[in-house]
Every structure is written in structure tokens, then in C-alpha cells.
Amino acid sequence: MAGIYIHIPYCRKACHYCNFHFSTTRYNAREMIDSILKEAVLQRDYIGNTAISTIYFGGGTPSIVPPAWIAALIDCIRQTYSVDDTAEITLEANPDDINEATLNGWQAAGVNRLSIGVQSFVQKDLEWMNRAHSAEEAYKAVQLATKAGMHNMSLDLIYGTPFLSDSDWQDNLQKAADLGVPHLSAYALTVEPRTALFKMIEKGKIPQVDTTKQARHFNMLMDFAATQGFEHYEISNLARPGQRSRHNSSYWKGISYLGLGPAAHSFDGKNARKWNIENNQLYIQGITKGDNVSTTELLSEDNQINEMIMIQLRLMEGLDLHQFSERFGAIATKALQQKAQPAINKGQLTIAAEHLILTRSGKHFADSTAVDLFV
To answer: Whole-prediction pTM value?
Structure first.
């Protein structure tokens, strides 16, 4: 089992908080698709004969390109790799790109799951974020997708933003529930260097992030999951039973995946990862010439230990101590448990069925707790 991630690096507008690789200029978009098609063939040996169980179109905004281009990419992958008949094929889409024609095109191409970048159903939120869609478009987009039979979908929401009140956040969650969405990805706003948001805060145009409010919103998210029947299966992800993201879950389980397109990352499932150059034109030129456009990193055992801790600790099931011991040995496992004891004493971690699991209060400190357990 393996996955393929395809990075489409184009957006209509630059969201003020975003630090992903993208461009608002699309003059070379057709060349980009042709280059990704070529890279898919060039990299066919990266994951060997392993069957592809998930394909994920991310970005950027993949929904910005014609559905026929998405179809061409899926067809190429099906012809080049062994793709499961039941493969999950996800497309990230912005509400303003969703209409009957695009939905029909995506479904005809084989897309069977949407990840819709709503971010908020509050208009003033969308405006300061510099989103390309309105609150009304967000609501209607989900309704259109449902009507078209695209029932397997996820919504992205951001909480702890400067102008988002507690009641607005609760309303965002309730709207998602009322729409019948089976999966939510909810993220606390982070201020990344070199973003417009960072500069706006620096100049005093927007208030600093209120960490107390973010913690409060996260508690509201956990309460929502518990009362609405969602599994809070990863710190930032909630799903109805049986509706977890198969693609993202493979990342957290350490399963191999191939990344195609500029800035895309790959992992061999063992001890090596690589990432493509973050420059659209240089990526196109390199692929056209058949040059290597990626950098490879071999992970030391310490890196592998730390990565497993960081990833699995975020999961509802927690860190599998039996699996950890099988990979890294009894001595490393004993050292891990000793390091975990202070957090256990504080009620932030617990051990159950050979799993090290964050408690409700511990989820607020997931990253710092993981760092405390690093070798």
C-alpha cells in the first residue's frame, strides 16, 4: 500500500496566512501539468510494485485547473502504477471553483473525495484572510457537492484567529455539522515568517494571536467532537466513524508515498525522504531535461525515533509502544517510558493497552510533550 501526492502550485489570490508553495501567476500552468505527467513516469520505480491506495491533489489550489487536466493526471497514474479499484482520490477545492460542471468533471475523472478550503463561514474572517470566496459561496459549495453525490468530503476550518469570537467559532462548527460533512480538518492559526499576516501583525494592523483564545477554541472543538459523534482521531482532524482520511492516515502510519510537482515531498517507507525544488520554472526546466529536481535526506535512527514520537502521539490511539519496541529495541523503549513519566504524573499522558496516549489536557501540549520525549 502506498500513496501519491500531486502538488498543483497555483492560487487565485495569496491568503495572508499561507506559507505553502504557490503562485498567483498561471502562464506556465499547461507546461507544469505536462512536467508532472512526465515526472510520474520518471519516478515509477520509487515505490516499486506497491499498490497505490490513495491519490491526493494538493497545493496551491488544484481546483483552479481544468477538470480535464486532473483527469489526464489520474489516467497517467492508473496507466503507470498499480492503482487499487477502491483507491481514495482526493482533490483540494476552493468554494469559488465548485459548480455543477467542475463537480461532474472531477467525478468523471475519478475523484471520489473533496477537501474544501472553507476556513470560515464568517464573512469578516474571509476578508482579512484574503480568501477568494464568500461565506455564502462556502455554504452553497458544500450543498452543491452533496447534491452531486460527493458525500465523502472534508472541510478545512481555522480557529483562534484575531477577529473570531467564541460564538462565531461554535457557529462554524455547527454549520459544518448541519451540512452533514463527515470530516473536518481544524487548525489553530499559526503566524509564519514571510507571510502577509506576519507583516500585518508586525505593523500593528492585526492583533497578535491570542493563545488563551486558541486554547478555548480547541476545547470547544473537542467538546464538539464528543457531542456530535466525531472521532477526534488526530489533533487537527475529526471524522465520522469510517470516514478518516486514508491518505493523511498513511502519513501518520509511516507508509510510503511519492510526491509529484514542485515542493512535493516523498518518503520510501523506511529511512529516506526527498523533496522537489520549490521553484515552478526550475522544476519545469529540470523535468523537461530529465534532471534530478529533488533533494534526498537519509534519516538516522534518532530521526526515525523522533519522527515516530511526533506523529503517533498526535493520534487518538497514541504511540504504539509494542511497535516502537520492535523497531528500536527494549532499551530505547524503556528510555522513552522514563521520559514520559513527568507528563504522566501531570496528567498529560497515560498508558493504555501498550499505547502512550495524550489526555484531553495533554492535547494542548502535543508538540512540546513530543519534544520532551525526543532522543
So the answer is: 0.97
